[in-house]
Amino acid sequence: MSSVFDQIISKEIPADIIYETENCLAFRDINPKAPEHILIIPKKPITKLSEAKPEDLQLLGQLMLAVGEVARILHVDEEGFRVIINNGRNAGQTVFHLHLHLLAGRRFDWPGL
Ligand code: 5GP
Questions:
Q1: Of all residues in the chain, what percent are helix, strand and coil, respectively (each to 5)?
Q2: What average pLDDT does the structure give for the chain?
Q3: CATH number of the domain residue 66 falls in
Q4: Residue 29 CA, ligand 1 centroid: distance in Å
């Protein structure tokens, strides 16, 4: 099933894209929970982390490396940031296309936001 993120990948709907590779895309969250709130997604439509397959191993690594690239672009790599993946309904996942939230620009409690 396609999601709004597929339309962002295909540029059918606009997004504030800050980083893009052949396999990954990073753009600003429309409803930010921190001064910087970026979503990092694979272009491949994996619905959630727990649906990733062994053949996605390299792609998952690319997403992890994209986190660091985005953090450097935002200049938050030194001060720190939080990365969150909501997996499924109980975690509050609302868009069923795997995405990493990178939150930065303020302090975060642990656990909690
Ligand atoms: P989830 O709750 O599934 O982990 O996170 C989905 C995120 O996608 C939410 O933080 C929500 O604000 C964001 N989002 C939903 N629709 C759009 C959209 O059309 N554009 C952008 N940039 N973000 C979106």
A1: 30, 20, 50
A2: 97
A3: 3.30.428.10
A4: 6
- pLDDT value of position 70: 98
Q: 66: domain range?
A: 4-104
Catalytic residue among 37, 75, 97, 99: 99
pLDDT in tens, 29-75: 999 999 999 999 999 999 999 999 999 999 999 999 999 999 999 99
Closest by CA to 69, choosing from 109, 12, 32, 23, is 23
User: What CA–CA distance (Å, rounded) separates 37 from 19?
Assistant: 13
For residue 100, report the distance from its CA to the centre of ligand 1, in Å.
11
Domain count within the chain? 1
